[in-house]
Write a structure and sequence with these properties.
- The two termini are 104 Å apart.
- Helix content is 89%, strand content 2%.
- By secondary structure, the chain is an all-alpha fold.
- The radius of gyration is 53 Å and the shape is rod-shaped.
- The chain has a two-stranded antiparallel sheet.
- The chain has 4 helices and 2 strands, in the order E-E-H-H-H-H.
- It has a domain of 124 residues: Methane Monooxygenase Hydroxylase, Chain G, domain 1.
- The longest helix has 112 residues.
């Protein structure tokens, strides 16, 4: 019997050759898959060209089976018809088995790809959280450094204020000594009491100026200390 693509025997021989080729190609795909798994490759190795060729060959075998199924039914002798029926059914079963194996391969590869994508997303989120924690630590370190700088500035300002007050105290003693010497001289030359009162008044004014200066210095130090807290 002969169909549009050749005789039943010719179609059968073509289908058997395609079965052998497809089985070998599928085994190559599975070797690639398991070799990548044993080497701890995260997403596995896929060969789109090879898997597409296997899928195409299986579809061609199934098409040949459809042609052969039509031809064996046209055989007159029952014994020959039953023989070709079993042969065609065997080819169809092998094609279905290959298709099932290929579908499982696609499913495993899709699952590995999805797992790799999820791991990448988790790793990205983990890296983002680590960066956030590091940023917090950096901000805390900067705040502590700023507090140390403020404390050092306050200590320096306090030391400056103490030095200023000590300077004022030294000037006060020198003014008192100079005043006593001047009074002795004036008393010696007989300066009037009026001049002496003027000198004493000037001395009191100088003292008030000194105290006001010390007061404002303390106010400035306290304000600077509060600002740096």
């Amino acid at each position: 019997m002969e169909g549009g693509g050749g005789t039943l025997s010719e179609l059968y021989q073509r289908s058997k050759k395609l079965l052998i080729k497809t089985r070998d190609s599928l085994e190559r795909l599975e070797r690639l898959e398991f070799s990548s798994a044993s080497s701890s490759t995260s997403a596995g190795v896929d060969s789109p060209e090879l898997s597409f060729a296997v899928k195409r060959d299986i579809a061609q075998i199934q098409s040949l089976c459809a042609d052969m199924d039509r031809l064996w039914r046209l055989i007159g002798a029952k014994s020959q018809r039953d023989l070709w029926k079993r042969k065609v059914e065997q080819v169809a079963e092998e094609a279905d088995s290959l298709k099932e194996s290929l579908d499982k391969y696609f499913l495993r590869n899709q699952r590995r790809t999805q797992e790799a994508r999820e791991r990448a997303e988790l790793l990205g989120r983990a890296n983002g959280e680590s960066s956030h924690v590091l940023r917090i630590f950096d901000e805390e370190a900067q705040a502590m450094q700023s507090a140390r700088n403020s404390s050092r500035m306050l200590e320096e300002s306090y030391a400056t204020g103490v030095a200023i007050l000590a300077q004022y105290a030294g000037q006060r003693e020198r003014l008192k000594s100079a005043q006593r010497k001047a009074l002795d001289i004036l008393n010696t030359v007989g300066v009037s009491n009026f001049v002496l009162r003027l000198i004493e008044r000037r001395h009191r004014v100088d003292q008030w100026i000194k105290y006001v200066g010390m007061f404002f210095t303390i106010i400035i130090l306290i304000a600077f200390w509060r600002w740096t807290r």
